[in-house]
Amino acid sequence: xxxxxxxxxxxxxxxxxxxxxxxxxxxxxxxxxxxxxxxxxxxxxxxxxxxxxxxxxxxxxxxxxxxxxxxxxxxxxxxxxxxxxxxxxxxxxxxxxxxxxxxxxxxxxxxxxxxxxxxxxxxxxxxxxxxxxxxxxxxxxxxxxxxxxxxxxxxxxxxxxxxxxxxxxxxxxxxxxxxxxxxxxxxxxxxxxxxxxxxxxxxxxxxxxxxxxxxxxxxxxxxxxxxxxxxxxxxxxxxxxxxxxxxxxxxxxxxxxxxxxxxxxxxxxxxxxxxxxxxxxxxxxxxxxxxxxxxxxxxxxxxxxxxxxxxxxxxxxxxxxxxxxxxxxxxxxxxxxxxxxxxxxxxxxxxxxxxxxxxxxxxxxxxxxxxxxxxxxxxxxxxxxxxxxxxxxx
Length: 394
Prior knowledge:
Blueprint: E1 3-11, H1 15-26, E2 31-34, H2 42-50, E3 53-56, E4 64-65, H3 73-78, H4 81-90, E5 95-97, E6 102-105, H5 110-122, E7 126-128, E8 133-139, E9 142-147, E10 150-159, H6 174-181, E11 186-192, E12 196-198, H7 200-206, E13 213-220, E14 223-231, E15 235-237, H8 239-245, E16 255-257, H9 264-274, H10 280-284, H11 290-299, H12 311-322, E17 324-325, E18 328-331, E19 339-344, E20 362-364, E21 372-373, H13 378-391
Parallel strand pairs: 1-2, 1-10, 2-7, 10-20
Antiparallel strand pairs: 3-6, 4-21, 5-6, 8-9, 9-10, 11-19, 12-15, 12-18, 13-14, 13-16, 14-15, 16-17
Helix pairs in contact: 1-5, 1-13, 9-12
């Protein structure tokens, strides 16, 4: 089988891998990219409903979860959202801000993949799909990587294989296996940015409300996110829930403010004063979806005219609306998770070059590392920043 010689072999043709490849290629490095999937950038293509939320203009290190929270600062500072936006604009890709600094393509996420491939092409990068890795060895003269398409001999190997989320698109634990093989610790992984499931009483009471959505504030373990929640036939989803899911684990206390834009107690007193004859379910239906209002009054709240609520009931009703205890039983798992929490321990990886401190020439970038962003373009910005950091070093 043929031997392919190159300076840099990038394993994984996703966001981080392509960014690393084009950056290294622009520096005159001979770069090969391989991926076991049949096409590149699959997660880019599906992201943002096919519009790709490619960055967030408000990105800071505080938008990421990691056992080593300072690790991401260097790369994020050296390759910013403005740097990526400059490339997007140079390729004349129209985009818009949806909310909270989230930037999306006007037309299609395919444009982002095309841009990255065009940049790789211009830099002389070669990309091979359907090219699974069979073995990686490091010798005195570099790495030898045996693949389905031949033996690669290179000075540097970059692991850009992602995490475990969405296995139907080819996600695997390959990057973690490589890390362990070369002496790196891999921190426990779990699904992040993922819908939560309900069971027992909560599931029975909410299952029929599948499709009902409303703005809420979700709170757990000192974190709070205000956004939309969607009730599903298995539990809860929507941006607020996906965000809080990364901070929640089974048994943790999860609270929802169902009236995030109001002081619930003050509002109830106003209703008692101005709409006393109206049923609680009626006035509640004017500020949250009617089906949810009926269900709350059926099982949790007093089902009677507002004027009949005494002081204790007003306080109790307000407390429940502002601090509703949602007992989640689990998550939908990697099947629908947008990201993987945990991963390669960053304490043995250089924060400026993404190079292993144990194995010279071995780099880890993107989601395979223990760096996980919030929902809203942060994980793509980490892919671009970590990819550029390695690409400038290999």
